[in-house]
Amino acid sequence: MSKTIIEMKNVSFQYEYTQVLNNISFKVNEGDFLAILGPNGSGKSTLLKILLGLLKPLAGEIKLFGQPNDTFRHREWIGYVSQKSNAFNSGFPATVEEVVKSGLAKKVGLFKRMPNDAAKQVQDALKAVGMESFRGKNIGELSGGQQQRVFIARALIAKPKVLVLDEPTVGIDHENVQSFYDMLVSLNKEQNITIILVTHDVDTVSNRISHVACLNQTIHFHGYKQEFDEISQEQLDKWQGHAVRKIH
Amino acid sequence: MIEAILQYEFLQNAFFSGLIIGVIAPLLGVFIVVRRMSLIADALSHVTLAGIAGSLYLSQTFTMFSLLNPIYLGIVASVSGSILIERLRTLYKHYEELAIPIIMSGGIGLSAIFISLASGFNTDIMSYLFGSVSAVSRQDLWVVVAIAFVVFLFLFTFFKEMFVLSFDEEFAKASGLPAKSIHLLFMVVVALVIAASMRIVGILLVSSLITLPVAASMRVAKGFKQTILFSILFGEAAVLIGLVSAFYLNLAPGGTIVVTSIVILLIVILGKKLALKIKAERV
Ligand SMILES: Nc1ncnc2c1ncn2[C@@H]1O[C@H](COP(=O)(O)OP(=O)(O)O)[C@@H](O)[C@H]1O
Ligand SMILES: [Mg+2]
């Protein structure tokens, strides 16, 4: 039995007036590949931000690696790739190498210099996402999909135990989405990195993931991928808020 | 000119202050520009003016303050302004930029009151508004040296954190860096640099020495470190050319330095266009 590394209990959240999350409870075990699915505005990004400590929940309890969220000191164990739309300023004057290297900042620690082998670590991280040949380019010269891979490399360089990705394939062209997910699978299988993925590509991910969580303010379903395949039409409609066609 | 510098203390003060400011203003300017905070620098310089004007008023009205160097109250005003801007920015979460006009008008309003309360220091005020070659004292120079030391110490210590914070604030927070504290420290350092620069370039033109060299550098540099390097080179060139011409032509150095920066910026923009064109024709 693998150990639980992320646990949410009865978590609720609201922005000034709108209730976004209501009584969310779930667990993620080491080695899981969890897809969080849900319509636009269902609170997926908000849920991730609470997990990452970017937002404080209104109520409820969160444990990361067995420790309460407030006192958790090893955020470098959790790599984050945010939703493209609200990310960085694309005119920023930095090379791919500088961006990826910055992913080490927390791990190295305050008042400490970057390690001597940082360049080698950058090389390895870029290799893992197939971007080695871009290291000297300015980040703004890359396409959306290439930037996304660089951000994954930035998360990977700190050797995280968990990788949290928010709709990472937005902006990646259709042919490359498959290979992108294959890359995630290999990180999950070969390096035993736990993956939490928010996505709309239900069809594409369905044979690659181990767990599914269906979110729309509350969790409508959470369990093994195989169980999700058995989910009833009624449950599906309730989650989506309108009638949907079941797809496999 | 070199002879004159060797001979006159006031020229030494102006030159060494200028050389130091030519490094620290664009150096910090890179972070200010990429974080889209140029307007904040402008607002802070106007708050600094309120401190300067207040100090000039005090020294004119009360004998006990008659020897007070206005730079100190300028620093106090600038640093308080930077902290106030941060408070306002958290208060108006959805209208962060509102903090800028609030602080800016507050600074100008207070300055206007102090200036009219104590009439008769017009030339003094002029030198603070547009800079001066002759008015920089030895004490001013030491203050500039001390502030430069703080800037280098800050960036030497927190360079990698400042990079992460500037590139992607959310990522900085998500990876558990003390983003808030480092940002607040940064704001204080910015306030110090503004107070330091004002003696040479003047309050009204401080933000241009912070932003123009960076604007030129971003056209040609590759990567972040190179952007910093070129910004400093351009800033230093503008200060040197500006100070020398201000001295010989008897002009306010703020004006000559800023005009030089703009010329450098234009040369860089046109030069790059030309280089691209030649390259395109060759292919
Ligand atoms: N910063 C914010 N302030 C107020 N409301 C927000 C904010 N961010 C998101 N919301 C609202 O919260 C709800 C959930 O948003 P989000 O978590 O981004 O959904 P998803 O990622 O599933 O599309 C939406 O109704 C959205 O409008
Ligand atoms: Mg979202």
UniProtKB/TrEMBL annotation, chain A:
Domain ABC transporter: 6-241
Pfam family, one: ABC_tran
Keywords: ATP-binding, Nucleotide-binding, Transport
InterPro entries assigned to the protein according to its UniProt record, in alphabetical order: AAA+_ATPase, ABC_transporter-like_ATP-bd, ABC_transporter-like_CS, Metal_Ion_Import_ABC, P-loop_NTPase
Family matches, as Gene3D superfamilies: P-loop containing nucleotide triphosphate hydrolases
Coiled-coil parts of chain: none
SMART domains linked: AAA
Organism superkingdom: Bacteria
Record PROSITE patterns: ABC_TRANSPORTER_1, ABC_TRANSPORTER_2
Gene Ontology MF terms in the entry: ATP binding; ATP hydrolysis activity
Stated family: Belongs to the ABC transporter superfamily.
Protein name: Zinc transport system ATP-binding protein
Naturally occurring in which organism (per UniProt): Ureibacillus xyleni
UniProtKB/TrEMBL annotation, chain B:
Keyword Transmembrane helix: yes
Any single Gene Ontology cellular-component annotation: ATP-binding cassette (ABC) transporter complex
Membrane-crossing residue ranges in chain numbering: 14-34, 39-58, 64-86, 98-121, 141-159, 228-249, 255-275
Stored SUPFAM superfamilies: ABC transporter involved in vitamin B12 uptake, BtuC (SSF81345)
Keyword Transmembrane helix: yes
Subcellular location as annotated: Cell membrane; Membrane
GO-annotated biological processes: response to zinc ion; transmembrane transport
Classification via Pfam families: ABC-3
Membrane topology note: Multi-pass membrane protein
Main localization category: membrane
Keyword vocabulary terms for this entry: Membrane, Transmembrane, Transmembrane helix, Transport
Family affiliation: Belongs to the ABC-3 integral membrane protein family.
Name of the featured protein: Zinc transport system permease protein
Natural source organism: Ureibacillus xyleni
